[in-house]
Amino acid sequence: MAADKEAFYRLAARSHDASTQIYRVDSVVHVEDEDDIWFWQKILSRYRGGRYKFRTATVNEHGNKTTGCAQCLKYRNYLSQRFFVCIDSDLRYLLDEDISAENGILQTYAYSWENHCVFAESLQETFDEFTGKGSEFDFVEFLRRYSAIVYEPFLLMLYQEREGLNDFDREKFRALITLTYRKGDEAGNGRAFLERLQSGLAKEAEVVKQNCDFNFEEESARYAAKGLGVDNAYLYVRGHCLYNSIVSIGKKLCIGTGVDFEQNILKSEPAFEQYDAMNRIKDDVGRLNGLRRSNIDS
Fold it and tell me: How many CB atoms within 10 Å of residue 266?
């Protein structure tokens, strides 16, 4: 980052820090977009009670109002307890990008906040509570089978991304998991949906595996250390794709119930303290207390 660009974001961070006085809040929090506020508001209310002003866009060095993770991370050297950022991990956590709460950056660990909305056990419990249809569709079983299907292709994609290869990169993987409801998908806990998913992934991944040095055992061990396994891979694939798939199935299941599947069920409440990725977020929120209180005088 050029010196003038550094100076711009240093001064901008100080301004955001100082604006806590104007807004009468404890912290200004920069998130990627409007949709992210719901999740991070829930997280901070749970683990760091206080008053917050969320910013979804700020002016970049060219004078344009800008959203997104890249804009959030431009402040990474100038964050404090009064001004910090919250981002989706995407693949950054799994690919070892240097992101830490000690520097004022909170991340989702799961691919994005959408993955947290579909945590299987909580989703099934809430679905049954609102609809009484828990015996008709088992999201725990669906997501267990979904994870088993995507697990090895996902590891292959991560290997390719890490090695700078593009035969099976994130965009190809994204396209293969972009599936939505078709008539009959609700039968057998999503059997037809899962068969389409498996067919597409297996066909593409098998060819790529034969032409690179991918080692399944080594990759499994590498990512197990980060909390990714065959039973929870659904938490780490592209969240928007999975979320849309679940919404499309859930809306069908809720027909005639008067229940809004997305708002009443998916966005009811995060499953606090119930799984690794959420516990990592909890720990990170605690680490914010080790940040400098303010960067106004730095």
Answer: 20
